[in-house]
Amino acid sequence: MNRQRVRKRDGVSRTPSRVASWLGGLLLAVVMAHALGPDRPPAHGQEHNAGRPPAPGLRASEILDLAKSLVLADATFDAYPLLVKLGFENSELQAKDLIAFEENGSFAYALGACTLGGSARSLGESATSRESAEVPRLFRRLIVLKPAILVVDDEVINPGSQVPVRWHLYCQKMPEAKGGTSRLIEGENELSCEALLPRKASYRLEALPTGDPESRSYSLRIESQENSARTRFLQVFHVNAGGPQNSRAHSELIAKGGEPEIVISTSRRAFRLNLPPPSEGAGEIAISMAGGKALLENRPLPSGILPHGPEGSRLLERWDADYRASRPPAWDIGRPADELRRVVSEGAVRKCRAVDLCCGSGSDAIYLARQGFDVTAIDVAPTALSQAEQKARRAGASVRWVLADVLKPPSLDPFDFIYDRGCYHVVRNQNVAAYLETVRRLSRPGTQFLLLAARRDGQAPNEGTEGVTEEELRFDFLPLFNLDSLREIRLESNRPGMSPPGWAALLRRAAKP
What we know:
By secondary structure, the protein is of the alpha+beta class. The chain is built from ten helices and 25 strands.
């Protein structure tokens, strides 16, 4: 990934019982279907053309392949290609539909979205548009809890339709099924599945003949009995490679504050996932040992595609480590920046929809929220966002925290005010084009932009130095923005005697660049 570490300060960037038993038992039947290859879903649009929305599904063989690869993986392994193949290279979703991704040593996360049927297209740029809201849509969230658990969360939105939606698991061998649980054995590997949503569903096992009795495959079909324009299929798969019976995963769905929380337990670990519908938000994750010791404190899941692969994982770890240290990073001053307070108190910027780029642990975003702004705050460090959320709760402030790379943010509507303290001057020498594209996408004519950046007074840049000259700043932002004011300031720091020279630029998006 081209994003280098954002030396950002304190502006935050940064989200009994077992679930009711499934109504309806297993309806087990062998039915004739169109000739299909083994372990293969129906052709694109097939069910849609028959008067039904297309039915999403996955191949059991690819779930097993993913688990096998993760068990054998070393530190250089990148799960991205396998997750894309599993969830985003089938009859509906494609790799281009991926809108969020993260991988670390504990889990991998992927989210994609597209329209369905004859109008199939990516929702990456238009997920909130009126046009997209009027056509069937599929949102798919995959979470791999390494090495052997896969959470599949498919949400089908079919406006104006009350037709039940189906979900399929395609298998090369006949699975055992009972209600919302199923089990498939291939060689020494066992794939088990617990279906948690929808709560009201029927189940059907179908044989899919190919003309060759030796190559017959099967589909375990789940059909929602909830007559709603929104249907959610939430399932937990566990691959047990010849282990003992007690090593299987056990899943519970618990209602918590209107959003489902999934608790997945194995003999060694417990995973807690707070998962709003995929179309509405990313959610949170926490991991602990079976005895309760925390392995991963509660933290947000990503809303954008984060740097991945060996190098991307190292970079993410380095950025996040700044906020896990015993001492806050130098730029985290624990209060709003003086220049931000000045432009707000003087009325130069009035309450509106605002976004804080590379917000850090949230002080600036929380300040804006308490002044009446509708605030979205973006950062790539999950620990920073966790700290920000805690601070916001204590302050009684409402902020939308978004875990994403500022150089590759999720699709968001343009804002009235953009704020950046300490991000631009860091990424400028790495990928200034991507940064400027982010600012362009997040603004519209009339949008105000307060930029606080390190100042470099004419000397040639060298490795280890940060900062921009007035000429560089003007070159980057004009003519897309007009410069309302430019002041020389000192950037605040929590280190005594450390206040580097800086710029305070108040810009306004031009009507016609």
